[in-house]
Amino acid sequence: MTHNLVHRLTEIQQSIPPHVRLIAVSKKVSIEAMRVVYHEGLRDFAENKLQDAIVKQEKLRDLSDICWHFIGHLQTNKAKKAIECFPWIHSVDSLKLAQKLDFYAQQALENSIIFQLPQVCLQVKVLPDENKYGWSVEHLYQDLSSLKFLNNLNVRGLMTILPLGLSSTQILSAFQTLRDLRDRLQNSFNSNFDQLSMGMSGDYLLAIEAGATMIRLGTKLFVP
Ligand SMILES: *Cc1c(COP(=O)(O)O)cnc(C)c1O
């Protein structure tokens, strides 16, 4: 198991440019497998359920330089916990959630529970998708003036999950739409609004072609 996992990781790393951050989506993965990729140098792990993640963080406490990313839908009543446990939250999908996160970030910073502004991405549906959370492009523009004033979050860029069943051409075009949107919004957010969290096991090469800075891989890395 270990050998194959290391082999897959090496293959993936060789297929992506060095500036693209590989995030291991460990949501369905054993602690042992996480340790294997950690020992191969991987430091970015993503989870989509807060409670499961907290259990794993406890078990991996000795690996203190892991960078934890949250990528699932967050209910607002879990915003406080999410801020305390995740330096990165990719899945900020509504103004209400963003405001809660901002509020708890301020508290956590004041109480020295965290020491850096949480890094967040705004989740956008570039194509209509009933089954997913996130802003439509139009609604994101409507909320922009409010989002700008969230001083306790470091809004780093955009994240998307595409609907199933698209052709390669449609996938590439959707990712390019997200990149263009990031470019257009760059003036609205202060400093470093430069991230594009896009691309999963089935479409990460297209995402990279369109300018992804972070890819989120689960299956491709962990499933034989
Ligand atoms: C599960 C998940 C992934 C990883 O998906 P794979 O297809 O297994 O690589 C990426 N992003 C999000 C938001 C996920 O929930």
Would you give the CATH topology? TIM Barrel
Which overall shape is indicated by the principal axes computed on the Cα atoms? globular
Number of strands: 9
What is the name of the CATH class?
Alpha Beta
CATH architecture: Alpha-Beta Barrel
Ions, cofactors and other ligands present here are:
pyridoxal-5'-phosphate
Quick recap:
Helices cover 42% and strands 18% of the residues. The chain is built from nine helices and nine strands. The protein has helices spanning 2-15, 31-39, 50-59, 79-85, 95-110, 137-147, 168-185, 204-209, 219-222; strands spanning 21-25, 44-47, 67-70, 88-92, 119-125, 135-136, 154-159, 195-197, 214-217.
Question: Keyphrases for this structure?
Answer:
nine-stranded parallel beta sheet; binds pyridoxal-5'-phosphate; 18% strand; 9 helices; single chain; globular; 224 residues
